Each structure stands twice: as C-alpha cells, then as structure tokens.
Amino acid sequence: MPDMTYEQFLRAVTDFATEVVANAEAIRGWGQYIDDEARDTAHVAAMIAAKRVDKDTVAETHELAQNLRGVSEEAIQYAAAGDTTARLAQAAHDQATTSHQGVHEAVNASPAEGIHDVDNDWLTQE
C-alpha cells in the first residue's frame, strides 16, 4: 500500500497551501500593526522634541521608530515569501492533477478487486 494515496496527496497539498496563505495573512497583519506603531512612535518622538524633552530620549524614541519600521518591513517580506510558497503548493496540486488524474479515474473505475494494493514497482514497469 502506498504511503499516501492520490486523494490524500491532493488534500494535503491543498490544506498546506490554505494554511500557508492564512499564516502569511496573519504575519502581514502583524507587519502592518508594527508599521502603525512605528509611525505612532515617530509622531511621539516629534511631539516630545517639540516639548523640549532631553535629546537622548528623543533620539531613543526615533531609534525605536526606525527599528519598528525595519521589523515591519521584514514581516511583510516574510509574508510575501509565504505567498510564493502557497503558489508553489498550488502548482504541485495542479501538476499532480494533470499527471495522475487519468490514472486515478481509471483505477477507481476498474472492477478489479484490491487494485489499490498493487505494488508501485509493478506500475512503473514498461
């Protein structure tokens, strides 16, 4: 018996792609949230500078805003990589369908008993 059937493979690839997309969206959301925090922090830095707060505190607040912006950019790039991974998973699904759907249909239409238990080596013989 194969480690994974055709239907299990398609389901696994589809589930994987769905999960990757959901995770990428969550990461993108956090990246946007962090970006909003970076803008707010930069605004706070400008406000405290206008109130003549000491220069070290203003500088630290500006640095925090810059660091948050960097984290946000990295999170958004990471999410984009998740989008690429999901597209590749979909491509694997499409390729499996193209390559094996006909065989799958023929096996399922066969009146032979135990056909799903055929040794894979036999199927690859010419």
Integer average pLDDT: 85
Poorly predicted tracts of residues = none
Assembly level:
single chain
Strand content: under 5%
Distance between the termini: 20 Å
The tally of helices reads 3
Q: Classify the secondary structure makeup into a structural class.
A: mainly alpha
Shape: rod-shaped
CA-atom Rg in angstroms: 26 Å
Biggest beta-sheet profile: none
Q: Output the helix-strand order.
A: HHH
Question: How many runs of DSSP E, i.e. beta strands?
Answer: 0
Helical amount: over 70%
Number of domains: 1
What's this entry about, in short?
By secondary structure, the chain is an all-alpha fold.
Describe the protein's architecture and organization:
This protein has 126 residues and is an all-alpha fold. The mean pLDDT is 85. It starts with 5 loop residues before the first helix and ends with a helix. It contains 3 helices and no strands. Helix 1 packs antiparallel against helix 2 (55-109). The protein has helices at residues 6-50, 55-109, 120-124. The protein is rod-shaped. It has one domain (6-124). The longest helix has 55 residues, at 55-109.
Labels describing this entry:
0% strand; 126 residues; mainly alpha
